[in-house]
Amino acid sequence: MQRALSTHLLVNHRLTTVWLDRIWDAGIPLVELFCARQHLDYHNRAQISQLGYWFRDSELKVHSMHSPMHTDDVWGRSGPDAVLNITEPIKSKRLRVVDEIKRALEIAESVPFRYLVQHIGTVGQEFDERAVESAFSALEQISLFAGQRGVEVLLENTPNDLSSAERLLVFLELTHLDLNFCFDTGHANIKEGLDTAYRLLKPRIRSTHVHDNDGKEDLHLFPFAPAGTIDWRRAMHTLRTQEDQYPLLLELREPPDTPRPLEAVKRVFEQLEELKPPEEK
Question: Considering the entire predicted model, what is its pTM?
Answer without folding.
Answer: 0.96
